[in-house]
Amino acid sequence: MLFTTQLFLLVFLPLTALAYHLADTRRARLWVLLLGSLVFYSWWDVRFLPLLMLTGLVNWSIAQAYRRRARDGLIWSGVAFNLGVLALFKYTNFLAASVLELFGEPFTPWPIVLPLGVSFFTFQQVSYLLDVRRGQAAEYDFLDFACYVCFFPHLIAGPIIRHHELIPQFANLVTRHVDRELIARGLLLFALGLIKKVWVADQLAPFADAGFAQAAPGFAAAWQAALAYSLQLYFDFSGYSDMALGLAGLFGLTLPINFDAPYRATSIREFWRRWHMTLSRFLRDYLYIPLGGSRAGPMRAYWATLGTMLLCGLWHGAGWTFIAWGGLHGVAVCCNRWWMGLTLRQGRALPAPLAWALTMLFVIAGWVLFRADDFPGAARMLAAMAGQGGRGAADEDAWPLIALAGALAVWGPTNLTLSRMNWLYRPLLAVPLALVLLVTVLRVGQGRGIEFIYFQF
């Protein structure tokens, strides 16, 4: 089930929220959340519901067993189980094709369907098991843990939530208590995220798709497609995150922030502190630091960074272009780290506008590799952006939308900032916002909605 459907907006969400707030005990509310989340997940493909439930049961059982008998083998077997599930569904075809290609053999992909959200709920449960081993996780009963894994706002595309960020909140579910302020802010944040997705990301998608589909794009068409996709990806994914945070607020819960205006970053390291923040934090705590981090000197930090970003690329997609994209960012982060050390010693730094321009140029070029179907396609786009394909023609209707979206991404307030502005809750503003929402709901009812980009990851 998608957030951007009338079924979700007009049926599922109102009924689930009503049942939740009418529930008269803490456990009853948790059961509403769990059952509603299972319905939400199975609506797309009920065949994968047993997988979601099985992974939750296995990981909770391993954690319980480890507390009785503290054997590291239990935790590592659980981590292997989770990564095995992820590899089976996401990487089997990729690995088989890569091996057969080395021997010049053809490969016909097996009909393996990627379960929605598997990359996200796998990482969440891996983090939980590793925290249990570190002694950093409390003991939870199965209902609490199952709600943590399955909570529908974050289930499909994040944020990647740590257990201590959500489960302790379940203990504070006050019967018959309605936090009107949290609900109001949640509704506004959800509405803003929906608007961001439907009226910005989805409108940019056709221009990006058209540009990347060209066999020989010119300079203008290549830049238009690259900019459209860069903005589409940001507004699509951050829009989902805004909606997830807003939905949690409707149930009196808070989720961690996932985006903080990343296209304002003046360095690639700052970009990763602002983009998909929960993934960056996961990679830092469970890959970068265990690989040595910055504790063993700069060279160890460089290797840890490169290894972490290569795995980051692989997590995003089963393809060599994703791995190359991750490696490219890893090299850039290492170069940025070296440059920052040099500027600190010399007391000089790039002017902020120039640093921002160079950062965005790198990020946009990286998104071309991220979006392209293969390396030749990425090379054609990048060559055209460098002026090697002639000026070419672009869709003139796209530029105003790209300019507006770019201005919002770089200079406009974030949705989270807007949701915290008290003046937006004045009654006079309720009517125009309601009208915009009505038009948006009618829009998604016309079947023009586009799935969230990160659903495929």
Describe the structure.
With 457 residues, this protein is an all-alpha fold. It has two domains: 6-177, no CATH class; 181-456, no CATH class. It is built from 20 helices and no strands. Helix 3 (49-68) packs antiparallel against helix 4, helix 10 (180-213) runs antiparallel to helix 11 (219-250) and helix 13 crosses helix 14.
SSE order, one letter for each helix or strand: HHHHHHHHHHHHHHHHHHHH
CA-atom Rg in angstroms: 23 Å
Q: β content, as a range?
A: under 5%
The total count of strands amounts to 0
Overall pLDDT score: 91
Distance between the termini: 16 Å
Brief overview:
The protein has 457 residues and is an all-alpha fold. It has helices at residues 6-22, 26-42, 49-68, 72-90, 92-102, 118-134, 142-150, 152-155, 163-170, 180-213, 219-250, 268-274, 277-288, 298-316, 320-346, 352-371, 375-385, 398-410, 415-419, 427-444. It starts with 5 loop residues before the first helix and ends in a 13-residue tail after the last helix.
